[in-house]
Design brief:
398 residues, 7-stranded parallel beta sheet, two-stranded antiparallel ribbon, binds nicotinamide-adenine-dinucleotide, binds zinc ion
């Protein structure tokens, strides 16, 4: 046999190359609950969840740290102490650390100090892999806290308590966490399955109107591409939802959450390693618009504009009738969501979003476009002329 740099002549060493293949198959439970008054001592959900997330073990006292969105804490001043008391009552076998307040909103994802602050608190509270971080807040606070949990000691347990419409109907359902860096959304992040996601619908009452409304753009997104019945329900109840009618809103939030969750559980590719696409209709432009406006447009608002833009492009490509496009855009407007923005006029900067999108997802870019209400197709990304034509049709005064 010819001499090769991979082969040695020592007979006790097996010949190279050596191939050792296997499969790592962790099965993660994924628990999502919808409830009201989660912190009420009569509500069993929190204690049930903690018994599963940090089960009592002989000779070991798990620790629990709560990280609370500052916007939530400001709107509901008693929340931090009520949560601490509820955690202590629900998990008497655990040691509850003093809660940490984290910045609310996109700043939490963009400012490295917010991530550092959570890591420092995890360290102070001596959170280990069998202990728990409880993150309560909007999608942004959950994303940064989830990322801290995913990287601290290579991953500690996380319990999410989403407190915005968008976090309950979309963001908290999945397995993604992340922060913005170098002007790019979610440039750093990790896939990690939380121990549980506890959605308390009564916590949504303190949301400012704009934050409330913005959350429904993700429900419209998934309805357009997946569920005609949901779309028609939102159409029927749009004015009531905008007027904050809880029962109309709850039905939509729960159905949207379920569809997002099903995509993770049944889509066969929760960590997006293969060909499964995230549910990101309207998102290539949305992420870009958020960055272009220095996050003056919130994620939900930008998604609404992205949906309007892509629906207009889809109509231009003949994938849907103009009447279907109008129906989608009208629904967004009835919900009180924006459907255009002057930043769209900078087509070149906008189109850089497509490249960013491709880099983020890897592989060849394609975008989801509706082919009707409740159905979609993956198509090559639109070119500059198509985007410019759509922007002209939309006109920024809309
Ligand atoms: N991880 C994912 O899969 C995923 C999916 C979709 C969106 N996201 C991310 O979610 C973020 C958007 O989340 P969002 O729409 O929840 O906005 P947000 O987290 O920015 O919250 C909006 C505002 O509401 C405040 N707030 C939160 N709960 C409150 C309450 N109950 N009462 C009063 N104020 C409250 C916050 O402090 C903030 O000021 C974006 O960063 C987006 O990228 C992540
Ligand atoms: Zn989104």
């Amino acid at each position: 046999m010819p001499d090769s740099p991979l082969q040695r002549h020592d007979a006790s060493v097996p010949a190279l190359p050596i191939r050792i293949d296997g499969e790592i198959r962790p099965a993660f439970p994924h628990r999502v609950r919808f409830t009201r008054d989660l912190l009420d001592p009569a509500n069993p959900i929190l204690s049930e969840t903690l018994a599963e997330a940090i089960p009592p073990e002989r000779g070991f006292r798990p620790r629990v740290l709560a990280a609370i969105d500052g916007g939530l804490a400001a709107s509901q001043p008693g929340f931090a102490s009520r949560l601490t008391a509820a955690l202590a009552a629900a998990a008497p076998h655990a040691e509850i650390a003093p809660p940490l307040e984290i910045p609310g909103g996109e700043a939490a994802k963009s400012d490295p100090a917010a991530l550092d602050g959570i890591v420092a608190a995890l360290e102070r509270a001596r959170i280990c892999r069998r202990s728990l971080l409880v993150a309560a807040g909007g999608g942004a606070a959950l994303d940064v806290a989830g990322y801290a949990a995913a990287i601290f000691h290579r991953g500690v347990r996380l319990l999410r308590i989403p407190t915005t419409v968008l976090a309950q109907d979309d963001a908290a359902m999945g397995v993604k966490n992340g922060v913005n860096r170098h002007g790019k959304k979610n440039l750093l992040g990790a896939f990690a399955v939380p121990e549980a996601v506890l959605c308390d619908l009564s916590l949504l009452r303190s949301l400012p109107d704009g934050v409330w409304r913005a959350g429904f753009s993700e429900a419209v997104k998934i309805a357009v591409i997946r569920d005609r019945d949901l779309f028609e329900r939102i159409e029927r109840d749009a004015a009531a939802i905008r007027g904050r009618d809880e029962s109309s809103a709850t039905a939509v939030i729960v159905r949207s959450a379920e569809l997002h969750l099903r995509h993770i559980l049944d889509g066969g590719d929760p960590f997006e390693r293969g060909t499964a696409r995230p549910l990101d209709f309207g998102h290539w432009a949305a992420h870009r618009l958020e960055s272009m406006t220095g996050h003056r447009l919130s994620h939900g608002e930008a998604v609404s504009i992205g949906i309007a833009l892509d629906s207009t492009i889809a109509a231009d490509l003949g994938l849907i009738d103009a009447a279907v496009r109008d129906r989608i855009v009208d629904l967004l407007r009835t919900l009180g969501l924006p459907t255009s923005h002057e930043a769209l006029l900078d087509t070149e900067a906008l189109l850089a979003g497509l490249e960013e999108f491709r880099e983020h997802l890897g592989g060849a870019a394609s975008v989801a476009m509706p082919t009707g209400i409740g159905a979609s197709v993956e198509v090559p990304p639109p070119g500059p002329e198509e985007v410019a034509r759509a922007v002209e049709t939309m006109s920024p005064c809309h």
